[in-house]
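Backbone-to-sequence.
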C-alpha cells in the first residue's frame, strides 16, 4: 500500500480513496486490484529468486520482526556482518527508527483490501515462508533469523 500511495502522491503523500476504486482501462478491474495482483506476484518471485540464485551467505529478517524487536534484530544483522557499533550508535538508531519520511494516515478506518486479496496475500506469504524454511534446511544455515516463522 505504501508504494501505491507513493505512485499516486509521492514519498509522503496518501493516495485519495478514489484511486483505489478507479477502473482499469483494459478491463473492469480496479487499478488497485491489478496493482495488488501484480505486486504480489513480483514479491513472491523476488524472494524465490534470492533463495534460489544468491550464492552467498544470507541473513533473513522479516519486517515484522525488525519492528517488533528492533534492538535484537539489528544486533543479529550486525553480528552477521561482523560489524561492531557502540551503545551510543545503537541508541541513536533506535531513537530514530521511525525516520523522517512518515505518511500521515489520512484515511482512518479505510481498508482497501478485499477478503480475496487478504486470502491471496496469506497464501503467497505462507509459500514464501515455506521456501525460506526449505532453504534453511538445505543450507543448514543458523544465520537465518529463527523468529520470522
Amino acid at each position: 500500500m505504501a508504494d501505491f500511495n507513493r505512485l499516486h502522491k509521492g514519498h509522503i503523500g496518501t493516495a485519495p480513496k478514489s484511486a483505489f476504486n478507479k477502473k482499469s482501462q483494459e478491463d473492469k478491474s480496479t487499478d488497485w486490484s491489478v496493482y495488488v495482483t501484480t505486486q504480489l506476484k513480483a514479491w513472491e518471485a523476488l524472494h524465490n529468486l534470492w533463495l534460489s540464485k544468491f550464492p552467498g551467505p544470507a541473513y533473513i529478517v522479516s519486517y515484522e520482526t525488525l519492528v517488533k524487536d528492533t534492538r535484537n534484530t539489528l544486533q543479529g544483522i550486525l553480528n552477521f556482518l561482523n560489524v561492531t557499533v557502540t551503545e551510543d550508535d545503537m541508541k541513536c538508531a533506535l531513537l530514530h527508527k521511525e525516520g523522517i519520511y512518515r505518511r500521515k494516515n489520512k484515511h482512518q478506518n479505510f481498508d482497501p483490501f478485499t477478503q480475496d486479496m487478504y486470502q491471496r496475500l496469506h497464501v503467497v506469504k505462507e509459500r514464501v515462508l515455506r521456501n525460506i524454511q526449505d532453504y534453511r534446511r538445505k543450507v543448514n544455515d543458523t544465520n537465518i533469523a529463527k523468529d520470522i516463522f
